[in-house]
Amino acid sequence: MPAGFQKAPALALPVLAAAAAGLLLTPALAAPTASPAAAPAALVQDADSPKGVHKDSYYGFSFKPPKKWNNVPRKTAEQWLAAKYVSAASYSYTDKDVGYTVNHKPELQLIVFPLAVTKKGGLEKDEKEVDGETVTTFTITSPYRDYDNFLERTFKGGGYYLDSEEEDEIDGVKVTKYIYVVDKMATSGPQTIETWVYHTEEVDYAVQLVGLTKHWKKIQKIFKPVRQTFKLIERTGSLSHSGNTSDRTVYSRISSKDETPKERKSRAVASESSIHEAAIAKLPPEGWSAIKSKRALMITSADKKFSKRVQNHVNNMFNWLDKEYGFLGEGAYLRAPVVRICANRDEAAAFSAGVSSGGYGGTWNISDELLTWDDTSGWTGNAIDNLNGQIYRYWMLEKNFALSTAMPQWIELGLNEMLQNSRMDSRKPDWRFQNWTVDRFRTTVRDGTATSARDMFLRTTKELIESAKGGGDPYAESAMLINYLASPDMKRHKLAKDLLKTYLTNMMKVVEDIEKDSDKALEAARKKSKEEGEDGEKTYRDERRKIFERKEKQVLQKTFDLTFGSWSAKDWEKFDASYFNAY
Fold this sequence. Notes:
39% of the residues lie in helices and 21% in strands.
């Protein structure tokens, strides 16, 4: 076991660690619909592409990619990004002021903008009858309006500015040529972005190249064949495009009662099958394979031994969660996710830097694949730590979406510390936690600055952030309270017995009641924003933030009242004494 770690209590509760990650104030308030429809199988490089040519008859283009550039797989739900290549060679940049050297690989992205999609957005409401019941679905979308808007929202490589813009015409097609310069806050050194946008009546095609400015002339020379060979070809059909970006949210409600377990399972199985088919269809011609297991579909470029170990780890993790904490989502069918196993960190970074994900470096969301890589630091490295967070979050969102989006932030922080270092090479989890977290908590107890358990249960996200700014240690406090509540080895007070289970069960009841009012308030805010025209979007964002802040306080207070209504001041005093002394 690595230095700096301790064995965690044998039965610590790691069920919701990253389940709530980043979701406390998300707009998804009710049970989710199935994930957005996966892109059709045609959304991939043509299988019969001539050697050395990337041909895509679905989107309608072809070109010769630079030699020895890697064809990077696209995410299953990706629709904006039609092709992506990354140079096998790295280029270095040395910052003379601070003396550090970084490496950067040039990257080609081809992004499509269906004009019928870019003009849409806002709140859409759909009602339909399903088995005699009214199902209302709300969809909040914010598609990219054009290439400028896309770059503004997705490029996270540093501050940039437009250096030049030129209008041209190539083979009868209008082309806008942009050059952007990235010379501030560029984490990989000053960069240049050169993009040619081909304008047609139905679709704009943006061919974007990013590379280090220092080596730009050499990179441009390598990339020249792409410009010379890029051409638009006849498409095989109309583009099926949802307009989804990371800003999209879908939530729905059945007016009286939910679907039967059989109906829910049937819908989930169909969605699972569609997602798996799309993931396999988007496999690059070489270097990747698909491995189907009972609990997940593995898409891997790593070696067989590592891929098998990840497969067993994922299967065991899901089995353990279902066995120990299935009460949080009884009757819910867990769709087998797609788990992407990359050969190394660089390949994982290139894959995660998608478009729908919201930017370079990527962010994981419910409709995306789970991602890991063969880490040079081995099985105890960050790659599996990161995967664990994704597994738990996926499990919780599938099992109980409404609860996961209402989870207090302090619970998320606490569970993250316990869970991210877990390993499941067998059916019994091996839990560990870092020594420094315990030491920091002990310091707050000795100093008399530790937050009481009562205040922790009522702590909002805003208060959590303010505590950290004020010199507090909310991370360590959250981790140790969750550890105390979850583990029989740590509990020293009878009031703590099954407390976390009782608390979460009560929260499920509270969320079900509160979310209905939140839906109405959101719909009213969107309606008002539309009446205000262009200025309405900011009004809507501000009002939405207020709505979720109110919802969070209501959830915390009502759950607290249900759980601790009979507790006296003396009970809290005894509980704190046992909790603090446990460490």
